[in-house]
Design goal:
The complex is a heterodimer of chains A (384) and B (684). Chain A is an alpha+beta fold and 384 residues long. In chain A, 39% of the residues lie in helices and 18% in strands. Chain A contains 16 helices and 10 strands. Chain A has a 7-stranded mixed β-sheet with strand order 1-5-6-10-9-8-7. In chain A, strands 2-4-3 form a 3-stranded antiparallel β-sheet. The longest helix of chain A is centred in the N-terminal third of the chain and has 23 residues. Chain A starts with 8 loop residues before the first helix and ends with a helix. Chain B has 5 domains: 68 residues, Phenylalanyl-tRNA Synthetase, Chain B, domain 1; 202 residues, 3-Layer(bba) Sandwich (Phenylalanyl-tRNA Synthetase, Chain B, domain 3); 57 residues, Phenylalanyl-tRNA Synthetase, Chain B, domain 1 (2-Layer Sandwich), CATH 3.30.56.10; 198 residues, Bira Bifunctional Protein, Domain 2 (BirA Bifunctional Protein, domain 2); 92 residues, 2-Layer Sandwich (Alpha-Beta Plaits). Chain B contains 19 helices and 35 strands. The chains are: A alpha+beta (384), B alpha+beta (684). At the A-B interface, helix 9, strand 1, strand 2, strand 3 and strand 5 of A face strand 2, helix 6, helix 9, helix 11 and helix 12 of B.
């Protein structure tokens, strides 16, 4: 026989008898015997203890041999029987029928089940074909087979939405350390230790010169030092406060800081840009209202309020009946702060804002407890 | 600050209703949080920013109202009936530290009768949140609320030598303050002393011993000005925050001192009788002058983007108490009043203009930033990772990185960053490993009967350094527990194992161009031995993954197995994303070839794959182990002990032609030859 013995049955069934050099009835018989033995071996292999998932293994084995498309039996039909030389056809046909019957019986569910006396009874129940082929179609009202998707944290979602709006306006993203020097967090921002305004930021300290940044504003100074003017940036990130946790206070939270510095920037740019941003974020129907406030790093300083999204400005619990909700602080960058960033305030001016991301998310999704954001509870996370 | 509407009306006419007043005050920066009725009065609760101590009074608030509605602010004029006896013969004042106390005014009132205050006074104080004490003390508080200047009344008889000396405390000097606390003072404290001992903590609180009592007959009334920074420091170091210190540390009005004094003296005589001795004692060694500021109209335009008329600018500033003189063609010389220490540069004046012009009247424009070509690659990478994580089922968490240091130490030996003033022991350290946060989050959910968990965090770790700011590293953490596939009509339950975690990490890393990427088993502090490993890119470890050590899982009281991975996000953010480069799709059929192999247990699969790949066979499409059994799992004698059977499926495909059986045979032969040195052979 000219058959190459190292060639597996898988390869052989993909070739015609002529290609395989099978030219007489005895070779045909040997070839079919080989196929049968392979099937027997694989069945033995299968029936030994081992596979953790019996029904799956059984299915693999059945498909390998009996699948209508690409199963070994069907390949034999296609490659050996159909193109067989006329003179060999009867022999091949007889062998093929015998093989088909034997393998079919061997790999029937009952046979496989018997091979598996103890271990697999239960698992076999799922084997396709064990129950008589149903005459009715499957119950299509059963739920679909789901592969659960994950989810992006609502704070991240809101942060990205904010970033996207400003990226669209040509701003770029900057970041800085969360553990900051007192200089960048306070002094460079015109908040000397001696000023009572310092008390507006309850601070967690590492030592007398190092703290957990209380806002993302230090990134303003770092970015000015690094890039100079003109500058259009936003700085998203974590901030920390020495606040006892409750439903509206968290020791860790997120801010997005924005800063624009250029030769031709006025309060009008601040108003226009933040109005655009607020309406883009909260919906075009809302109104914005700017009113004076105080931050040591801006002058003039302001707060931005939007018409309450819960009551359309009519007055409710959320807006304390005022119809307005404060959403962020803003202002024209204080000349002293520009100087600390190495920028000449006579030549350049700038505006800046800072907003709390959790607060935005709370407004957007009507969340009433800031602690929910940081617990990692999937009952919360899966809602977004 | 609580502001009484009736009280306000004593200084200014208010031509609008309270709702409008509230909105307008907010419009000029006096944040009215609420207002409510108190008898026939209305009380406004106003949040006054730290820069506006002048508005911590009814008179200061009235000035804003007057400016808003173009009303006249009632001037403060007090004419006192004084006795012929001079005050100077009954008391003397000396300031030893004029830097810290720039002015000290005093008056002596003899023959007072200390008793409860009349009802109207009690009610008014109560309405603005002050407790009534007695008529003399109440007057000082009343004037504080009215004019914003802190006063103090001493029992003149208790002042040894009838002297007032303003000086630094001597180290170890003691003073019992009005709150009954015995305080030990030091050179960092400024005191009001009599001839021998301190009688008040300057600008903060009076002493108990010299306070007004039922037996007080003669009162020495103090109205002074103390240096803000120093008062703030004293108040902080003594842990004592009072109405007085609140105003002094924000900057009181030095010119208000004598006026408030006269107002209070007058009221005391009205309510407690007695007579005011002639002359105010006023020690004011260096009268303060405000420096004028040049204000340019062009600068107003530059900052506000609005053209505000000359007249409007002048009207606002004058009404707010500024002296305004036109200078040149473009501006003014503006002198701020003594009560506006917050205004010192041009832009401060511009804010005053903007406040009263109305922020909402100012123009508005949207001007995008100048276009720049910058690749925000970091964000791109973050989005890519996030997208992959969502696709393979991870829910993002954002835990606080503040944790317990002992917990941190169980997962890493890198030193964390310890906080000096933490809120609690559990949040006293900035973590140097993100794993404890992930374990906590898994536990939180397991304890709440959520069993199938895939969580991810993109956060930072913080490592202390000998010098400079701590090192902050970005890290991606994955946490897995429960079942890959829950109970369902469509299939059986399947538990998660190491290869779920590994596959997820592989899916993540696949997005990047990482030369020399390889996996190797590795030990780790918190992994169960033998069930952990890492991915390296060349020599750099970039991901650690494994099963949480059983002892740790027990300590956390976890109900089920937990799998964890930490990925060096800094590395990935710097690495380049794999740039797709199209390869033509082969038109020719692939051929699968199964190798049934016997492999020594000590030979890792990765070396087999490496050997086959090392052949560099162009037609090798994929290499996939499809079945593996250890010898114990097979009938004895089937394969030798210490070996495993492995069914390796190699797919061959050529881009140029249908592979002939000879070619496949040749390639198969080479595969077997490459495996042979590893002790791998075909199964008989």
């Amino acid at each position: 026989m000219t058959l190459n013995s190292s060639m597996t049955i898988d390869v052989k069934v993909r070739n015609t008898l002529v290609d395989l050099g099978v030219l007489n009835a005895s070779d045909v018989r040997a070839l079919f015997q080989e196929a049968l033995h392979t099937a027997e071996n694989e069945l033995m292999e299968f029936s030994r203890p081992g596979p953790s998932d019996v029904s799956q293994a059984a299915k693999v084995l059945r498909d390998r041999w009996l699948a209508r498309k690409g199963g070994i039996v069907s390949l034999i039909d296609r490659n050996w029987l159909k193109p067989a030389p006329e003179e060999l056809k009867p022999a091949v046909g007889a062998e093929f029928n015998a093989l088909r019957q034997l393998v079919g019986a061997m790999l029937s569910t009952e046979s496989l089940l018997m091979s598996f006396e103890n271990a697999a009874n239960e698992a076999m129940a799922d084997l396709p074909g064990r129950t008589p082929r149903p005459t009715a179609p499957p119950d299509l009202t059963l739920p679909g087979r789901r592969r659960p998707l994950g989810s992006v944290h609502p704070v991240t979602q809101v942060m990205r939405e904010i970033e996207d709006i400003f990226l669209g306006l040509g701003f770029s993203i900057e970041s800085g350390p969360e553990i900051e020097s007192v200089y960048y967090n306070f002094e460079a921002l015109n908040i000397p230790e001696s000023h009572p305004a310092r008390d507006d930021w309850d601070t967690l300290y590492v030592d007398s010169q190092t703290l957990l940044r209380t806002h993302t504003s230090p990134v303003q100074i770092r970015a000015m030092e690094k890039h100079g003017a003109p500058l259009h940036i936003i700085c998203p990130g974590k901030c920390y406060r020495h606040d006892n946790p409750d439903s509206t206070h968290a020791t860790m939270f997120h801010q997005v800081e924005g800063l624009a510095v250029d030769t031709d920037i006025s309060f009008a740019d601040l108003k226009g840009t933040l109005d655009f941003f607020a309406r883009k974020f909260f919906g075009e129907k809302i109104h914005t209202n700017f009113f004076p406030s105080f931050f040591p790093f801006t002058e003039p300083s302001g707060d931005l309020a939007i018409s309450c999204v819960f009551c359309d400005g009519k007055g409710c619990r959320v807006c304390k009946d005022s119809g307005w909700v404060e959403v962020m602080g803003c202002g024209m960058v204080h000349p002293e702060v520009l100087r600390h960033g190495g920028i000449d305030p006579a030549q350049y001016s700038g505006w800046a804002f800072g907003l709390g991301v959790e607060r935005f998310a709370m407004m957007k999704y009507d969340i009433n407890d800031i602690q929910l954001f940081h617990q990692g509870d999937v009952r919360f996370l899966e809602q977004f | 600050m609580k502001i009484s509407l009736n009280w306000l009306k004593e200084f200014v006419e208010i031509p609008v209703d309270p709702h409008r007043l509230k909105a307008d005050l907010i419009g000029v920066g006096l944040n009215v949080e609420s207002f409510g009725a108190a008898g026939d009065d209305l009380i406004f609760e106003i949040e006054v920013t730290t820069n506006r101590p002048d508005c911590l009074s009814h008179y200061g608030t009235a000035r804003e109202v007057a400016t808003l509605y173009r009303q006249r602010l009632k001037p403060l004029e007090y004419t006192l009936r004084e006795s012929s006896a001079p005050a100077s013969s009954e008391a003397s004042i000396e300031i030893l530290d004029p830097e810290l106390c720039a002015r000290y005014c005093g008056r002596v009132i003899q023959g007072v009768e200390v008793k409860p205050s009349p009802e109207w006074l009690k009610q008014r104080l109560e309405a603005v949140g002050q407790r009534s004490i007695n008529n003399v003390a109440d007057v000082t508080n009343y004037v504080l609320m009215e004019l914003g200047h802190p006063l103090h009344a001493f029992d003149h008889a208790r002042l040894t030598g009838h002297k007032i000396i303003v000086r630094r405390a001597r180290v170890g000097e003691r003073l019992r303050t009005l709150d009954g606390v015995d305080r030990t003072l030091g050179a960092a404290d400024l005191v009001i002393a009599d001839a021998v001992r301190p009688v008040a903590l300057a600008g903060v609180m009076g002493g108990e011993d010299s306070q007004i009592s039922g037996s007080t007959r003669t009162v020495l009334l103090e109205s002074a000005w103390f240096e803000p920074v120093f008062i703030r420091r004293t108040s902080k170091s003594q842990g004592l925050h009072t109405e007085a210190s609140h105003r002094f540390e924000r900057g009181a009005d030095i010119e208000m001192a004598p006026k408030a004094l006269d107002r209070a003296a007058d009221l005391i005589v009205q309510l407690a009788g007695g007579e005011i001795l002639r002359g105010a004692l006023d020690v004011y060694p260096a009268p303060q002058q405000r420096n004028p500021i040049m204000l340019r109209r062009s600068e107003v335009q530059r900052v506000l983007g609005a053209e505000v008329s000359w007249e409007e600018i002048e009207r606002f500033l004058r009404a707010l108490g500024f002296e305004v003189e036109r200078r040149g063609t473009d501006g003014w010389r503006v002198t701020p009043p003594s009560f506006r220490l917050d205004v010192s540069i041009e832009v401060d004046l511009i804010e005053e203009v903007a406040r009263h012009y109305g922020y909402n009247r100012l123009p508005s424009r949207v001007k995008p930033a100048p276009a720049r070509v910058t690749g925000s690659s970091v964000r791109e990478v973050e989005l890519k990772i996030s997208e992959t994580l969502v696709g393979i089922g991870y829910r993002e968490i954002i835990p606080s990185p503040m944790i317990d240091p002992d917990e941190n130490a169980r997962f890493t030996d890198r030193p964390p960053v310890v906080l000096a003033n933490p809120l609690s022991q559990e949040a006293s350290t900035m973590r140097s490993s993100a794993i404890p946060s992930m374990v906590r989050a898994l536990k939180w959910n397991l304890d709440r009967y959520r069993n199938d968990l895939k969580l991810s965090e993109m956060g930072r770790t913080y490592t202390n350094r000998a010098e400079g700011l701590p090192e902050e590293k970005q890290v991606l953490t994955l946490g897995l527990s429960g079942r890959r596939q829950g109970a369902s009509v469509h299939g059986t339950e399947e538990g998660i194992d190491f290869f779920d975690l590994k596959g997820d990490v592989e899916a993540l890393l696949e997005a990047f161009d990482l030369p020399g990427l390889a996996f190797e088993p590795a030990e780790c502090l918190y992994h169960e031995p033998g069930l952990g490993g890492r991915f390296v890119a060349g020599q750099t470890p970039i991901a650690l993954l494994g099963k949480l050590k059983e002892s740790l899982a027990r300590d956390y009281k976890l109900r089920q197995e937990v799998w964890l991975a930490e990925v060096d996000l800094d590395f990935l953010l710097k690495a380049s994303l794999r740039h797709p480069s199209f390869k033509p799709i082969s038109k020719f059929p692939p051929v699968e070839r199964d190798f049934s192999l016997v492999v020594p247990e000590t030979t890792p699969y990765s070396s087999l794959e490496a050997a086959v790949r090392g052949l560099g066979l162009e037609e090798t499409q994929s290499i996939m182990p499809v079945d593996r059994r250890r010898s114990e799992e097979l009938a004895s004698g089937t394969i030798p002990g210490g070996h495993a059977s492995l069914l390796l499926r190699v797919t061959f495909q050529s881009p140029t032609h249908t592979l002939a059986s000879e070619e496949i045979e040749a390639a198969s032969q080479r595969v077997l030859e490459a495996l042979e040195p590893l002790g791998v052979r075909l199964r008989a």
